[in-house]
Amino acid sequence: MKNRLSYRLQNISYSQTIAMSAKARELKNKGYNIINLSLGEPDFSPPNFVLSSAKKAIDEGYHYYTPVSGYFELKKMICEKFSRDNRLKYTPSQIVVSTGAKQAIMNVLLSLLNKDDEVIIPAPYWVSYLQMVKFCESSPVIIPTIMKNDFKIHPEQLEKAITSKTKLFIFSSPCNPTGSVYSYEELKDLSEIFKKHPKVMILSDEIYEHICYSEKHTSIAIFPDIHNQVITVNGLSKAFSMTGWRIGYIGAPEWIAQSCDKIQGQMTSCANSIAQIAAITALAAHPNKIEYMIKEFKKRRNLVLDMIKEIDGFQFYQPNGAFYIFPKISSFFGKKLHGKIIQNSDEFSEFLLDQSKVATVSGSAFGDNECLRISYASSDDKIIEAFTRIKKVLN
Questions:
Q1: What pLDDT does residue 2 have?
Q2: What is the DSSP string of 234-260?
Q3: Ordered domains of the chain (ranges, CATH)
Q4: pTM of this prediction?
Q5: Residue 256 phi, psi (nearest 5)
Q6: In this structure, are residues 69 and 97 in contact, taking their beta carbons and an 8 Å threshold?
């Protein structure tokens, strides 16, 4: 049956984060006490003012199709949010609201990419970037980074990677999976390279913008010379803990927004109407309304850093954003652990699930086979228990 499937489908892989979470859920259903640190899903409920807004929207009859690109009132509020939080100027005609940031990114890629176009992606990267590019039959060009440099690329690396076939550059800051945050100065240096290549578009994934602990988040579109090259992607899943509500959006040059509207109109039409009304309320709120979540994530990060120090063989650095730690675990490769020789990060992640009943995600899914992604978007109790189990198995 496989040869009856499309080439596009055969060319991509399943999401390893979702696959690992599904495996953890399956083991849990069988009665195992699994701690799932694989998914990037906050354990908070959305703020009460957002919940109240959604309930009110139901009572007021927002049950029908919305315009494909979103309610005008929501697009206007997104423009106000961009201005307030990011110092970016967009008009409602430059905004498209989608069923999550994931669809927003896919809309952009389908709008821009042709077969064999090159797309530059710094590694480690979010798992879906690579698979989305492959789905579009384009060619990923991976720029490797190292822990010593906080997993960030240098302008020289970027310049070297750009060719006549380069169509797009994709990155996230704060970064999933590393937690790295590009500073204003670092982004300015990168912008100087992009300025020399005006045909190269930039997709800036800023879904974790509010989850920063030291470096203040900067949007790369803030630099005037490249503003029209940038598609800014954001959403409500992480900062407002609204993962299942599926609201993402872009701010982009109008020709990109129109293209995404066209594609979305043939795919899913509009995002959920009730969630859109709630999103207006969420984005109208000042970021200090969700500061309690950010403080809790920082506390959890510090807890993880304290506990991971006690595990022999883990190399790590302090992430400044998002809610992941991305330790290097290659010191275990070639060693026998509980009768099994570990060859790579996939096997190490499987080993932790089998032996400690803790679900993580292999670094190979993010373009770095030497590392492991661990989410700390869980309670203190679960984090403490998970790292206690890992320490017991490994030490």
A1: 66
A2: EESTTTT--GGG--EEEE--HHHHHHH
A3: 2-45+290-394 (3.90.1150.10), 48-286 (3.40.640.10)
A4: 0.95
A5: -70, -45
A6: yes
